[in-house]
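=== Structural record ===
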Amino acid sequence: MSTPPAAKAGFTPTGTIAASKDQRRVVFATVVGTTVEWYDFFIYSSAAGLVFGQLFFAPAGEGFAQILAFLTVGLSFLFRPLGAFLAGHLGDRYGRRIVLMLTLILMGVATTLVGLLPTYAAIGIAAPILLIVLRILQGISAGGEWGGAVLMAVEHAPKAKRGLFGASPQIGVPLGLLLASGVMGLMALLAPGEAFLEWGWRVPFLLSVVLILVGYYVRRRVEESPVFAELSERKEKTRMPIVQLFRRHALLVVVAALVFAGNNAVGYMTTGGYIQRYATDPNGSLGFATADVLGAVTLSAVSWLVFTWVAGWLSDRIGRRTTYLIGWGLQLVGVFLLFPLVNSGSIGLLTVGLVILTVGLGFTYGPQAALYTELFPASIRFSGVSISYAIGAILGGAFAPTIAQALVQATGSTDAVTWYLAGMTVLGLIGTLLLRDRSGIPLGPDHEAEQAKSPVYGLSKA
């Protein structure tokens, strides 16, 4: 009798990993890979808030140029579903690992080319067009990256540690923000004023080449997910996973997307570059130094990282749903405190406001990888996880900075932004309340029938 691939690689059919050395390798690879991906994604958002309006959209006029710069941040989200569809099909048909390699390369190439782009003053309208094309490529990559990283982490995890393992790709987001803000802040110090506009902003984009090589090397050393290995051995892979997903689980995709939208809209106040622009705008009421604001964002990213990890760990003990419910309450507190502290005129209080916000953000992001993985059947899981995430990103963070900018320009106050973010938080809470907690459900193909029962309250059929 032949030995299944999963057994040869040292895995059990239930998706637990055999050796602690392999456990550490999976965690390390998912953290490094997602950090590199989100570093690339977030330096664009930071640059959009700080320089892209002036360099690529200046002919539109000062106020509208900034709105256009933020629109390019949101535009990429519209192409995340395309990335999710492509990655979902490839991931469910050919494996999680190959998708992770392809998305990493695509993101790195697009990011590096942004750092080489001539500005509007140099080549005219071709400059913003090329910028938008490269941002679209980033969006396609991001749409496929997250699902693969999440499944590699959670499907390798012991049953009792899925939340903790799943937090490893999640902390790649605050780590990416930490790295992006730190490098941008350093360049703002080394090349202040006009030098930053001329060349300083380009350096973080060009550094992506080095980071991509590191991420590629680390990811190559990780084995394929044991769940996919078992599906492959049994020849049980779904021919059209996306069709099956929407035929049987369309409502679940929508509900899962709402959960992420509630977190993502609020998180994009910093990851989307809005706070950076609002607090440093020389024509605004605050006018903080760029380096100071980026330092505050960097510190908040550390806090976000810590609470994301804590929430993943806690969800293994009290359940994903309960952890989320605590998180929504904390996030709502952070939303209502954010702008009063930012508008205080003190960089110290601005930092406090951002740090408080990240407590709730961490609690509504840390358990997401395990929650999503446990929602969908094994044969269509990559498609389900990726597409739910992509739709949630469109509903949440895609145009959050643009909406915030437009609300402030229309009302002259940040109060409307606060209520917008509070509304998105409540939307995420409603999505969570609609889902049953499936913490610990078996993930392997032997339990496909159990997995196919809808976790949405009021539905139970496959």
Remarks:
- Confidence is low (pLDDT under 50) at residues 1-18.
- The first helix runs from residue 5 to 8.
- DSSP finds 23 helices and no strands in the chain.
- The CA atoms of residues 56 and 124 lie 8 Å apart.
